[in-house]
Amino acid sequence: MTAISTQPAYPARLLGLWLMLTTVPVSAQIYKCRQPDGSLSYQQTACVAQTEPERIPVDIRGPDGSERTPSKVDYSVVAQAEHLRAEREAREWAHLQARREAEAQARALKAAAKPDHNTDFDPVKCARHRGEVAKWRRKVRSSYRNRDQRDYNQSKLTYHQALVERYCKS
């Protein structure tokens, strides 16, 4: 017994054939028309026998009715960029000045609040950091393998010298 298939063998071909038979041909036309003044125009509609361009008046008067004169402001891209750059530099300069003034005020307040003598005196820490300063001085004077090692030794010496100033009597 053989089974009869009810499905078409080539559905894509049948669909394509159906589309070709049912579509309507579409065409678009472009007309090239010569105007009475001799110029050419291209349009989608047929040319009229007496084709002339329509003139549109442009009113350049100001709101008060007077003739407008050209503006003295330069609106070119270069001029606008220069103006924006100048504004940005002025803002940055004002910000820098304000920051410097605030830092100066903070230093003045800190100096006024700082006592004349060292209140952090600690003889144990003083002795320890003096020993560290001596150790790092020897390392700085001795040979070093590369610049990074020299910079490291120098920074450690500076650090311990600052701590000696803090914890030892002046």
Write a structural description:
The protein has 170 residues and is mainly alpha-helical. Among the domains are: 41 residues; 53 residues, no CATH class. The chain is built from four helices and two strands; from the N terminus they run αββααα. Strands 1-2 form a two-stranded antiparallel ribbon. Helix 3 runs antiparallel to helix 4. The radius of gyration is 45 Å and the shape is elongated. The N and C termini lie far apart (117 Å). About 6% of the residues have low confidence.
Q: Give the DSSP E fraction (strand runs of 2 or more residues).
A: under 5%
The helix content is 40-55%
Indicate the structural class: mainly alpha
Distance between the termini: 117 Å
Mean pLDDT: 76
Q: What are the low-pLDDT stretches, counting only 5+ consecutive residues below 50?
A: 24-28, 52-56
Main-sheet strand order equals 1-2
Number of E-state strands: 2
Gyration radius from CA atoms, angstroms: 45 Å
Give helix and strand order, one letter per element, not per position. HEEHHH
**Assembly status:** single chain
Largest sheet: 2 strands, antiparallel
Shape: elongated
Protein name: DUF4124 domain-containing protein
InterPro entries: DUF4124 (IPR025392)
Domain DUF4124: 19-59
